[in-house]
Design goal:
This protein has helices at 4-7, 14-43, 47-78, 81-105, 108-136, 139-167, 173-192, 209-216, 220-251, 255-279, 289-307, 320-323, 327-357, 360-390, 395-416. With 422 residues, the protein is mostly helical. It has a single domain, classed as Growth Hormone, Chain: A (Up-down Bundle), CATH 1.20.1250.20.
C-alpha cells in the first residue's frame, strides 16, 4: 500500500492534504467522543437515558450533512478548492472556541450546539477532499490514496476516541479537552496554508436534491456505489453511537472498555481498508462485496449472542483487565474486530468507483450527494434507535435486528452483479 511516488508528490500537495484531513477527522472525533463519554459516564443513570442522549448527539453531528451537502458540493465544483479548504479550516478554530467554552462551562446545550457546527464544517469539507483527489492523482495512485484516506480516517477516529474518551475523565478533563480541540484546529489551519495547486473550476448551477439524484443516475455505476456506501454508514452509525451505552449497561465496563471497543472498530476498518487497497486489481470490481456485507452482519450477530452469555452488568463498572479473562468477552472483542475489517474492505473500492466513473465537472456534486444520502440514513438510524428505546426494546434486540437487515442488502448488492463493476 505504501507508495514512495504518492508521498513524494510535492507538486500535487497530497501529503499536505492528507495531513489536513487527518487533523480534521481527529478533531471531530476528539470533541465528539469526549462529549459521548461525558454524557454516558457523568450524566446518564440508565440505559435509556444514556442511549437517547448519545444518539441525539450523533444525530446533531450528522444533520448538517443532510442540510448543507448539496450546497457544499456546488461550492466545491465552482470555486478554487484549496482556497475553500483554507477558509473552512479557519472557521474550525472559531467553532472549536465555542466548543471549548461549552466544555469548560459544562453546558450540555452549548455542547450540542457546538457539535452541530462541527458537523456543518465537516459537511463543507467532505465534498472537497474526495473530489480533489482525482485531479491530483490517477490510476493505482488514486486507489492507494483512497486507501490511505479511508484507513487514516478511522485511525483518526481511534486516536480521537482514546484521547477524547480518556482525557475527559481526567481531573479537570473538560479544561484539557478545551485546550486540545483549539490547538488541533489551529494546527489544521496552519497546515492548510501549505496547500498549493491550480485546479479548474466551473460555473455553479443551482440544483435541488431531486435534480442531483436524476443527474447522478446518468452515471449508474457511481450512483449505485453511493447507495452501497450509504448502507454501510447506516450500519456503522448504529454501532458507533451505541457502543458506550452497550459497554456500560450491557457489558458492565468502564470508560476504558468503551475505548477498547472503539479502538478495535477503528483499527479493523483501517486494516480492512489497507488490505483491499493492496489486493484490489487495477480494474476495480465488487464481486466480493455481498460476502463482505454478510460477514459484517454475521459478525455483529455472533457478538450479540456472546454478549448475552456474559453476567448481568453490576453497579460497579469493570475494567478491561477484570473482563479480559472471560472467554465470552474475548469472543465479543473478536467479533467486533472482524465486523470492522469486513467494513474497511467494503468501502474503499466504492469510493474509488465514484471518483473514476463520475465526470470531473460533476464529481464534487456526486460526492455531495453521497454525503447527503449517507447522512439521511445515519439520521434515520438515530431516529430508529430512539424509537426503539421509546418502545421499550433492549439494545441487544435492536442490534440483532440491524444485523439481520444487512442480509437483504447483501442480496440486493449481489443482484447488481456485473452492472456494478468498474
Amino acid at each position: 500500500m505504501f507508495s514512495p511516488s504518492l508521498w513524494r508528490c510535492s507538486s500535487c500537495s497530497f501529503p499536505t492534504l492528507f495531513f489536513v484531513q487527518f487533523l480534521g477527522a481527529f478533531n471531530d472525533n476528539l470533541f465528539k467522543n469526549a462529549l459521548v463519554i461525558w454524557f454516558t459516564f457523568k450524566l446518564a443513570t440508565n440505559e435509556s437515558d444514556g442511549g437517547l442522549l448519545v444518539t441525539l448527539a450523533a444525530g446533531l453531528f450528522i444533520l448538517p450533512f443532510v442540510l448543507f451537502s448539496a450546497f457544499a458540493g456546488r461550492l466545491a465544483d465552482t470555486y478554487d478548492k484549496i482556497a475553500l479548504i483554507k477558509k473552512i479550516k479557519l472557521a474550525e478554530i472559531g467553532i472549536m472556541g465555542l466548543g471549548a467554552l461549552a466544555l469548560v462551562s459544562q453546558s450540555v446545550e452549548l455542547m450540542l450546539i457546538s457539535l452541530f457546527f462541527m458537523g456543518v464544517q465537516s459537511a463543507f469539507f467532505g465534498p472537497i477532499k474526495y473530489s480533489i483527489l482525482p485531479q491530483l492523482l490517477t490510476g493505482r495512485l488514486l486507489i492507494k490514496a483512497n486507501g490511505w484516506f479511508s484507513g487514516s480516517t478511522f485511525i483518526a477516529i481511534l486516536l480521537g476516541t482514546i484521547f477524547g474518551g480518556l482525557g475527559i475523565m481526567l481531573p479537570a478533563g473538560e479544561t484539557w479537552m478545551a485546550g486540545a480541540v483549539i490547538a488541533t484546529a489551529v494546527l489544521g489551519w496552519l497546515a492548510s496554508l501549505g496547500l498549493k495547486t491550480d485546479l479548474p473550476v466551473t460555473k455553479m448551477q443551482s440544483q435541488t436534491f431531486r435534480q442531483m439524484v436524476a443527474q447522478a443516475k446518468q452515471v449508474p455505476i457511481a450512483f449505485k456505489s453511493v447507495l452501497a456506501i450509504s448502507w454501510f454508514w447506516f450500519f456503522g452509525a448504529v454501532i458507533l453511537s451505541q457502543i458506550p451505552t452497550l459497554v456500560k449497561f450491557q457489558v458492565g465496563g468502564n470508560d476504558s472498555v468503551v475505548v477498547l471497543f472503539l479502538t478495535l472498530f477503528s483499527v479493523g476498518i483501517a486494516v480492512g481498508s489497507g488490505l483491499i487497497a493492496k489486493l484490489m486489481p487495477p480494474k476495480i470490481h465488487l464481486n466480493w462485496h455481498s460476502f463482505l456485507l454478510v460477514g459484517m452482519g454475521l459478525s455483529l450477530a455472533v457478538g450479540m449472542i456472546l454478549l448475552g452469555q456474559l453476567p448481568p452488568a453490576g453497579e460497579n463498572l469493570l475494567s478491561v483487565h477484570e473482563l479480559i479473562s472471560n472467554g465470552f468477552f474475548q469472543g465479543l472483542l473478536l467479533s467486533f474486530a472482524a465486523m470492522a475489517l469486513f467494513g474497511g474492505a467494503y468501502i474503499v473500492p466504492l469510493y474509488t468507483l465514484i471518483q473514476i466513473e463520475t465526470p470531473e465537472p460533476q464529481r464534487a456534486r456526486m460526492i455531495a450527494l453521497n454525503n447527503i444520502i449517507n447522512s439521511l440514513l445515519m439520521v434515520l438510524s438515530a431516529l430508529l434507535i430512539m424509537l426503539g428505546y421509546a418502545l421499550g426494546l433492549e439494545l441487544l434486540t435492536m442490534l440483532l435486528i440491524v444485523a439481520l437487515m444487512n442480509l437483504p442488502v447483501a442480496f440486493w448488492l449481489k443482484s447488481l452483479g456485473r452492472n456494478l463493476s468498474g
